[in-house]
Amino acid sequence: MNFTKLITGTIAGGITYFLLGWLFYGKLLVDFFNNHPGLTKGYNRPEPLWLFLVGANLVAGLLLAYIFSRLNVKSLNDAIVTATIIGALMIISFDAMMYATTTLTSGKALLADVAAFTVMSAVAGMVISFAGNLAGKKAS
Amino acid sequence: MTFKNFLIGGIAGGLVFFFLGWVAYALVVNKVIEETAHLHEGGIRNYSLFYFVLGGKFFTGLFMSFFFMRAKVNTIESGALIGAIFGFFMAAANNLIIYSTISLYSFKFVWVDTVAFMVISCIAGIAIVLVSGIYDRSVSDNS
């Protein structure tokens, strides 16, 4: 495993997830989620805990970078397809559990979240691949 | 390795996630949730939606099975190790996102759930290797 590529991919993926998360969940889909709440309201923190949020996005980036490294994903196409599949499977499993065990989300919000996170993962995959290739070229 | 292996691995992993999840969350993690009941009054369903739990676990199994097929993870040791790594990453990322944006769970829940899910994923990884038909005994014997 190439650790330089792994670290570069983790940081690039983490930053991408963070920025796209802010764009989707902080800007574009805010009204949609507010208009499609679950049965219980009032759980959203007024201000996110930034340190934990950054940590979560870095872990998501690390997971994707690790998968790319183990699968030897090199081309941009392969990166986008793999990241889309991984992202979709991950978010469906996570959201289904959230919906099954809590009253915080609605069915429509769940579908929007699945779509948003899948797109985010596809873009993050693209960025990780690009950053990894760049790091590989510099190392060689 | 075929689509059939992938699907069988996903189902096997999903069933392990489902049954071990039921054991872990009913016996261990649930106590942590009860300890911090003031944080989530009304936010947790009294009864989980069975089909969504089953579906969710099936997709978790598919996720791991997809990687195992493509990365040619075919020994018990590598299945357990990669299962544990994935379990840790997935649970940590999801729990930290929830913890940072919603006041539903305590921080104790975050790490207890992450450890529990990592252990379950480790066992699910072994099950996927053994049941899906990708297990290679010769590689295990040589290593």
Description:
The complex is a heterodimer of chains A (140) and B (143). Chain A has 140 residues and is mainly α. Chain A is 81% helix and 0% strand. In chain A, helix 1 (3-28) packs antiparallel against helix 5. Chain A is built from five helices and no strands. The two termini of chain A are 15 Å apart. With 143 residues, chain B is mostly helical. Helix content of chain B is 79%, strand content 0%. Chain B contains five helices and no strands. Chain B has helices at residues 3-35, 50-71, 76-101, 107-132, 137-142. In chain B, helix 1 packs antiparallel against helix 4 (107-132). The radius of gyration of chain B is 16 Å and the shape is elongated. The model of chain B has no long low-confidence stretch (mean pLDDT 88). The interface between A and B is large, with 39 and 40 residues.
For this entry, give a set of tags.
heterodimer; A: 140 residues; mainly alpha; 0% strand; B: 143 residues
